[in-house]
Design a protein that fits this description.
The protein is an alpha+beta fold. Helix content is 21%, strand content 31%.
Length: 70
């Protein structure tokens, strides 16, 4: 399987015992840096750094409301 690094995104949220670790963590695959994002939508589900699904709930509620009033 070949990985397309241009389409690959990463959400970094790394912890250690005494708090957050490494703010500027760069992930590299095949000598290309993978883009870090704060949130990512996959199949209509919004994944965020904090792991909360509040953003997903808001997004889906907005889409449902638009569909109702069409």
């Amino acid at each position: 399987m070949k990985i397309n690094v241009k389409k690959t995104k990463v959400i970094v949220h790394v912890f250690r015992k005494s708090g957050m670790l490494l703010r500027n963590l760069n992930l590299v695959f095949d000598n290309e840096e993978i883009e870090e994002v704060k949130s990512f939508s996959y199949l209509g589900i919004v994944f965020t750094k904090g792991g909360s699904f509040n953003e997903t709930q808001r997004t889906l509620a907005c889409k449902a409301q638009k569909a109702i009033f069409k």
